[in-house]
Amino acid sequence: MKYRCFAALLSVAFVMLTACSEDQIQARGFVLPKGDPERGLESFQVLTCTGCHVVDGVELPDVEPWLDDGRFIRLGGPVTHVQTYGDLVTSVIHPDYRVGRDKRKSKDADASTTMPNYNEVMTVQELIDIVTFLERHYDVVTYGYAIP
């Protein structure tokens, strides 16, 4: 297990040190190879992300939600802010970052998420593919303003 984690970290470090090309994605200071959205959907299901998440516009197998309140967390769909590649990577590898920050702003005492840590079981390629799969399902909605 430690070897797999070390290999994943070494792979990420190598990717970060390589130059950009057309088949790579750069997001806020790091570069990852291009992912495969079909493999991302497969990894999303294999890693049982479907136990807590649904993706806007994607037909996923019927599963019982794992969340205590019996609901799913919706991913994708219309958003009013840009959900960048870097935001999605961060949400997968460090889900407490955004949830904790948002809850601290609202003064909520429980500033953590129930999402398990997948960093030791997910490969770098699975991460890249899942993020590539998810990012195409977000639609940024802008509000129109009437000019008098």
Précis, in short:
By secondary structure, the chain is α/β, with parallel strands linked by helices.
How is this structure best described in words?
Helix content is about 40%, strand content about 15%. It is an alpha/beta fold. The strands form 3 sheets. It has a two-stranded antiparallel sheet. The chain has a two-stranded parallel ribbon with strand order 3-4. A two-stranded parallel ribbon has the order 5-6.
Structure keywords:
148 residues, two-stranded parallel ribbon, 5 helices, alpha/beta
Task: Give a topology summary.
Blueprint: H1 2-17, E1 24-27, E2 30-33, H2 37-46, E3 53-55, E4 73-75, E5 77-79, H3 85-93, H4 95-105, H5 124-135, E6 138-140
Parallel strand pairs: 3-4, 5-6
Antiparallel strand pairs: 1-2
How many angstroms separate the termini? 63 Å
Order of helices and strands: HEEHEEEHHHE
Point out poorly predicted stretches.
12-21
Helix content: 25-40%
Beta-strand content estimate: 5-15%
Structural class: alpha/beta
3D shape: globular
- How are strands sequenced across the largest beta sheet? 1-2
Q: Rg, please?
A: 17 Å
Helical segment tally? 5
Q: What average pLDDT do the residues reach?
A: 75
Major beta sheet, specifics? 2 strands, antiparallel
Strand segment count: 6
